[in-house]
């Protein structure tokens, strides 16, 4: 690995400090290097707070003049909650900028790089670009497709069961796996579950086993099968997604609890999940964790909205029980949804299998 890549990977590690803290902004890290020595570094840590470049340049002080700046995303050139970072870069006297990737936000889209280049700053774009895109996959999808990144979480036995025949599911996986799920909850903007999960478990969908913020709870209930007294509806920011032809008086019972009720067209209570996901993006949510149950998992895969799968595998067998994923309507093995870029991590006795979902053709074909 060359020295430049090491500095950029340091910036990428710094950027991760903003995970779960800066959405809908991107995670960004920056490193100032002078004569092969890091003289300043920083990360974006708070919405409305200083950006990574500003933190790094402040720490570098006068040593930033004539130095190189490594940043994981193109410096902004527009006034948002904070002044443009391009102004800070120019004022500091940076000689060369190494930028992992351009900012896909239409307000930026190469303008920051162009502005710095016009002022004589040497620019290198693309160093560690793949890692930078992975880091900000949610931000990129939100800005380019007006949709949040969707992660499907499944905690199941080796034979694909998420609960016993009675519906009991406490607990399939061990403590470490459950803590890991809660860490993911603290990182995403929203957690979505189906009506069956609310009826069976009455979950709060909060973060409990690790420090972090609570995501917004989203319940997908096209037929209003859940009770307005369910615990999830007592939470601030709770959202109920239901069919627009459900009785208005029933919907008012949820709204009376403080729950936002979003209605969409439906067929037999079945809502195209791209519709509520689009609304979530409009509300500033860049990432959503779907936690079940099996019917919602099948609907999300059937609507081709799932980007990544987090599959927690417990070394148990259950035989008959509740399937992790409902019917996908697949008749031939060749039609099975494929998973790519898979990674395996051990969490105590359990395994976490993480992968990206590959669909054979577009959902509109």
Summarize the topology:
Elements: H1 3-15, E1 29-34, E2 37-43, H2 52-60, E3 68-71, H3 85-92, E4 96-99, H4 111-118, E5 122-125, H5 129-135, H6 137-145, E6 149-157, E7 161-163, H7 175-187, E8 190-194, H8 195-201, E9 216-220, E10 239-243, H9 248-255, E11 260-264, H10 274-282, E12 287-292, H11 294-302, E13 308-314, E14 322-323, E15 338-347, E16 350-358
Parallel strand pairs: 3-4, 4-5, 6-12, 6-13, 8-9, 8-12, 9-10, 10-11
Antiparallel strand pairs: 1-2, 1-3, 7-14, 13-16, 15-16
Helix pairs in contact: 3-4
Mean pLDDT: 95
Shape: elongated
Helix content: 25-40%
Q: Number of helical segments?
A: 11
Could you tell me the strand content as a percent range?
15-25%
Radius of gyration: 23 Å
The total number of structural domains is 2
**CATH architectural designation of the largest domain:** 3-Layer(aba) Sandwich
Structural class by helix and strand composition: alpha/beta
CATH class type of the largest domain: Alpha Beta
Please give a structural write-up.
With 365 residues, this protein is an alpha/beta fold. It has two domains: 3-139, 3-Layer(aba) Sandwich (Cytidine Deaminase, domain 2), CATH 3.40.140.10; 147-358, Dihydrofolate Reductase, subunit A (3-Layer(aba) Sandwich), CATH 3.40.430. It contains eleven helices and 16 strands. It has helices spanning 3-15, 52-60, 85-92, 111-118, 129-135, 137-145, 175-187, 195-201, 248-255, 274-282, 294-302, and strands at 29-34, 37-43, 68-71, 96-99, 122-125, 149-157, 161-163, 190-194, 216-220, 239-243, 260-264, 287-292, 308-314, 322-323, 338-347, 350-358. The two termini are 43 Å apart.
């Amino acid at each position: 690995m060359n020295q430049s890549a090491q500095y950029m990977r340091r910036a990428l590690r710094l950027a991760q400090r903003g995970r779960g803290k800066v959405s809908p902004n991107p995670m960004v890290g920056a490193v100032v290097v002078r004569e092969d020595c890091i003289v300043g570094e920083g990360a974006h840590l708070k919405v409305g707070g200083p950006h990574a470049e500003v933190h790094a340049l402040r720490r570098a002080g006068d040593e930033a003049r004539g130095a190189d700046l490594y940043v994981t995303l193109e410096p902004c050139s527009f006034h948002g909650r904070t002044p443009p970072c391009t102004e800070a870069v120019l004022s500091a006297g940076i000689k060369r900028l190494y930028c992992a990737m351009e900012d896909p936000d239409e307000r930026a889209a190469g303008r920051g790089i162009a502005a710095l280049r016009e002022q004589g700053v040497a620019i290198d774009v693309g160093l560690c670009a793949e890692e930078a895109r992975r880091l900000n996959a949610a931000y990129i999808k939100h800005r380019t497709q007006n949709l949040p990144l969707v992660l499907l979480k499944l905690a199941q036995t080796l034979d694909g069961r998420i609960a016993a025949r009675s519906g009991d599911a406490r607990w399939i996986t061990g403590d470490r796996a459950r803590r890991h799920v809660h860490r993911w909850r603290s990182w995403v903007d929203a957690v979505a579950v189906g009506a069956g999960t609310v009826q069976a478990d009455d979950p709060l969908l909060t973060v409990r086993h690790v420090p972090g913020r609570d995501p917004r709870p989203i319940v997908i209930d096209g037929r209003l099968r859940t009770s307005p007294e369910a615990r999830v509806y007592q939470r601030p920011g709770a959202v109920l997604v239901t069919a627009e032809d459900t009785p208005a008086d029933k919907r008012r019972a949820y709204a009376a609890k403080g729950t936002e009720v979003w209605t969409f067209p439906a067929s037999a209570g079945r809502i195209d999940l791209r519709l509520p996901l689009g609304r979530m993006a409009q509300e500033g949510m860049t990432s959503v964790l779907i936690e079940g149950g099996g019917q919602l998992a099948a609907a999300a895969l059937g609507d081709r909205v799932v980007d990544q799968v987090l599959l927690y595998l417990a070394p148990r067998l259950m035989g008959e029980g509740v399937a992790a994923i409902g019917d996908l309507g697949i008749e031939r093995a060749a039609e099975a949804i494929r998973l790519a870029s898979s990674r395996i991590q051990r969490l105590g006795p359990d395994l976490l299998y993480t992968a990206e979902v590959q669909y054979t053709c577009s959902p509109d074909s």
